[in-house]
Structure formats: structure tokens, C-alpha cells
Amino acid sequence: MSDESYHDEDIEAAAHHVPEQFDGEYPIRIRGLINRFGDFAVHEDLNLDVKRGEILGVVGGSGTGKSVLMRSIIGLQVPDEGNIEVFGKDITDAEPDEVIGVRDRWGVLFQGGALFSTLTVAENVQVPLKQFYPELKQQLLNEIAAYKVVLTGLPENAAAKFPSELSGGMKKRAGLARALALDPELLFLDEPTAGLDPIGAAKFDELTRELADTLGLTVFLITHDLDTLYAICDRVAVLADKQVIAVGTIPELLETDHPWIQEYFNGPRSRAAADSHERGKALDKPQAGGA
Ligand SMILES: Nc1ncnc2c1ncn2[C@@H]1O[C@H](COP(=O)(O)OP(=O)(O)OP(=O)(O)O)[C@@H](O)[C@H]1O
User: Fold this and answer.
1) Nearest CA to ligand 1 atom 27
2) Residue 117 forms part of a structural domain
3) Taking Cα atoms as reference points, which of 220, 166, 219, 216 lies closest to residue 196?
4) Domain limits at 19?
5) Ligand 1 centroid from CA 66, angstroms
6) Which atom of ligand 1 is closest in space to residue 224's alpha carbon?
7) Which UniProt key words apply to this protein (predicted)?
């Protein structure tokens, strides 16, 4: 299969996922971002727009600043310079009080799930609910938590379990349930499939796509997983040289001649991921003359 053969089809498929009514809306806009640790600059004049309704994959070599970028957007890292607008509000300048109405519109799944080990899954899901809605009655908290647990594909009885009683895949789902506790519009996922076996990872990808589509989420997804990029990302942003050097669909990125992009997307692992994605699409297509 040549690059040409999947080029047009993939651009069409990728574009398909971003609902037309969201055209021109950018829940995240970043301009001139600079982050330094001492003399070491992680980001220099970084710019990025995330479109509403898309799953944006964020890739880059180790240490290029993907997690620092995410931490800057959610206010855990104060940038040295630049502006980050989330839902039109510049969060870099804002007083804590001013961003309250913004912070409860996003959910975060940190690397490894970051569940509280002394709390059950249901109690973990209730943490952000209690933080933002302290007036909610315990019975309602329990009902919301039970719903989120099932929404992420966990069995109902997982709600009463402690993180140590869950498999790696279940922990990720529990972390996702907590990230979805506040019905966010924006979801941040930091390497969600890391540590999962390929089948578990593919299932988690499917869940992410399904939830994004049904709940109308915008997803900022940091990953090293090429299968995830091909399977569910509408666009991919590439971090290198302290900036976002390119953002687009995979076929669009393949047209750029940056050496890291070429090596990453034309390497044997990427080709295998692309081929497997193509085979999956072919199997999904209805057979001519079939029932
Ligand atoms: N709190 C900190 N203090 C000092 N340096 C830091 C801090 N946080 C991150 N860094 C540095 O910033 C750089 C970017 O880190 P970051 O974790 O964002 O990379 P990454 O792209 O997410 O990497 P990986 O793919 O390996 O997870 C690294 O060199 C890291 O050592």
C-alpha cells in the first residue's frame, strides 16, 4: 500500500469526527508559551490551538515537554511567559477565584491513574464532586459515582473496590471515571494506554473515542502509542525543538520534512500501526452483496 492510497481516505475519516457545528471553536489557545526550569527552557514561544470536539494526540520525544504543557494548561505549572486561554479565559493571568468556572469544565487522567489508594473507586470519583459541589448529599454522590463507573466499562461491583484490588486496565478506567465526574467538556489524558497489553490498550482507545463522540468531548491526549494515534486521533501535535513544530492529520504530517516526524511516522512501528489500522478499517467495511 502506498502512502497515497490511504492519504485522502484518512484525511476524510479524520475530519469526519469533528462535528461541523463546532467549526472555529477552540477551547484551548496557547500563544508564545515559555516554560523554564532554571536555565533550561522546555518551551520557547510555543503556540497551539485545540479544536472543539477533536481528539488531539500530543507526541514528541521523551523530555520534550508534553507533560509540562498539559500541567501548564491545567494550572499546575505557572509559565514564565505567554498566554493560555481555556474556554476563552486567560488562565495564566487569572486569580484563583476567576478560574473556578473553568476548572470544573475539564477532567484529567494522570499517568498511571493517580488514584487515592486508601479510597474506594466510588470515593475516588466523588473527590472532585465534593470539591466543587460540597452541598451534594451522600446518596446523590453514590449514584453519580456508580453511573461513572459503569460509563467507563467497569462492572458495578468495582465501585466498592480499592485500587490495589484492580488490574492495570481497570485502574485506568477508574481514573477515567474520576476524570469524568464533573461532566467535563475537556478531557486531558496523559499516556492512557501506557502499561496496558495491546488488547487492553485497543479497548481503552475505543472507549475514549466512544465517550468523546457521545459526550461531545474535546480530548488532549499525550501518547507514545502509535496505534492510538492511528485509531482515534483526529489530529496530532508534534513537540520538538521546544515548540509545537507541526499539527495536523497523520497524512498531513507525513508531508512535512522535519526529520523527527519522518523518522517517527515512517519508522517500522508506525508502518505496522498504519497497516493494522487499514486492515481494521477494511474489516469494518460492509462486503458488497453481503446480507
Ligand atoms: N518540576 C520540574 N523541575 C525541573 N525540571 C522539570 C520539572 N518538570 C519537568 N522538568 C523537565 O522538563 C522537561 C520536560 O518534561 P516532561 O515531563 O514534560 O517531558 P515529556 O515530554 O512529558 O516526557 P516523557 O515522554 O518522557 O513523559 C524534562 O527535561 C524534565 O526533566
Assistant:
1) 62
2) no
3) 166
4) 3-105+184-281
5) 8
6) 25
7) ATP-binding, Nucleotide-binding, Transport
